Amino acid sequence: MSFTSIKRAYQVISIALHYGLDELLPPKLAPWYFRLWRLSLFWLRNRHKQKPGGERLKLALQELGPVYIKFGQMLSTRRDLLSDEWAYELAMLQDRVPPFDSKLARQAIEVELKASIESLFDDFDEKPLASASISQVHTAILKSNGKPVVLKVLRPNVEQQIIADLLLMSQTAALLETLLGPNNRLRPAEVVEDYRTTIMGELNLKLEALNTIRLRNNFLDSNALYVPYVYEELSHPRLLVLERIYGIPVSDIAALRAQGTNLKLLAEKGVQLFFTQVFRDNFFHADMHPGNIFISREHPQDPYYIGLDCGIMGTLSDTDKRYLAENFLAFFNRDYRRIAQLYVESGWVSPDTDLLAFEQAVKVVCEPMFNKPLNEISFGHVLLELFRTARRFDIVVQPQLVLLEKTLLYIEGLGRQLYPQLDLWQTAKPFLENWMAEQVGPKAMLRKAKAQLPYWSDKLPEIPELIYDNLRLGRNLLGSQQQMLDKYLRHQQKSHKSNYLLITSAVLLICGTILFSRDVTLWLSHSCLGAGVVFWLIGWRSRPKIRKF
């Protein structure tokens, strides 16, 4: 462990203890050696005793810096692990980071491009357009076509800082696993590993470029979403160059109303976009917070979204998609038994789960929802509550489902902010029903058969030969099995015969010995002993040899 790592570890520990995070551990999870260690750091005292636990954790993460702020933001979506109070506090974390020196940004950009900025761009703005914990954005004009672009560049040495902090997080998670025991519900090691996957993906801007291109291609002909064009030839692991867009931040409701935006239609399009990305494309933007979404200034009566920052994308397996769609439909139909079955069938909870008890728990969560109008029901919170209920039944939360839950909460929150009367279910139900019909109906079977047609047309000429080979192999196999059976029966016969002779030999030898000891006629005892020896020799020689069948 390097001196820098030790210094950073001490800084993290001191901040954690200044906020009294050690006191949040239940007494039974703080063994004597942990308490002794805490007493040895007597100069690091809790300075925030009056604040609740969730707020203290939020403030500590905020002071620790960008990596921990993002970790807290991710942790706020794990409602299956945290209470509402803690999740709410962590959701308030803000990623506000002062910009770094523009000279360093210029230098980093030129290193990636292997050329000077002036040779490729005009009007490069030294003042950053935006600054975040991982990257910084500058604007310029592309020389080749005169179009405005943005250049997103990673902060200097951000990779080393993040890797060092991740290592420290992993070590802390391992310690917590030891303290909490193997059956703890917090699963700190799993949470840190999920975070590692997410943040390491954000460090590769080339991957973000590819994600942006894929999302753009999925919606090229859409009137609901516009994704900026990526200049792939100018994009590198530490630099992303893409088209500059001009829109209204989705959170600026006053500006949207001022231009006469159709907010009801906009909210409905947001819901449709979510379900299209998840169920049609199986590739959804998993970081759709207000800072990444803008609204077009053109066509306010038929507005469209502008999506940015495709660093975090989510996908689901076909099984997860089907089970998720069925979950929503079962909820609407108040079929709680089916919801419970789906959780077990999908592997989200153990197959040993008491289905009746789980069904009742789901009913307790869902039934009160139907006392409200549909436009007041939050389906993001329904999914969240179902995960929280399943936690009591040892749910195995998949990372992709956590991303999905977070995205659904974002979309629903934005939709209701734009249009409070949004009936998410009325908008989503036709989409889900059509999707389910396409997946399990006759059309789905025909489509799958059509998709497999080229494969089967290629294999069709080989089928007669394959059938002949398999029949011949089956006949040979039957013949070899019969031979093995015959050998086994002969072996058993020999074994029985040998055992019979050896047992007879033992009886005769015993009888001969008894007769000899009692001074009976000698010829009788000698006959028994002689016959016993003869039977023993014959039995021993007739023993079958051990063979492998």
Reconstruct the topology from this structure.
Elements: H1 3-18, H2 32-40, H3 53-64, H4 66-75, H5 84-91, H6 102-113, H7 117-120, E1 121-122, E2 130-131, E3 135-142, E4 148-154, H8 158-180, H9 188-202, H10 205-218, E5 225-226, E6 239-243, E7 247-249, H11 253-258, H12 263-281, E8 284-285, E9 293-296, E10 305-307, E11 313-314, H13 318-332, H14 336-345, H15 355-366, H16 379-391, H17 399-418, H18 424-440, H19 442-459, H20 463-517, H21 522-541
Parallel strand pairs: 5-10
Antiparallel strand pairs: 1-3, 2-3, 3-4, 4-6, 7-9, 8-11, 9-10
Helix pairs in contact: 1-3, 3-4, 3-5, 4-9, 8-9, 12-17, 12-18, 13-14, 13-18, 14-15, 15-16, 16-17, 18-19, 20-21
Give the structure's gist in a few sentences.
The chain is an alpha+beta fold and 549 residues long. 60% of the residues lie in helices and 7% in strands.
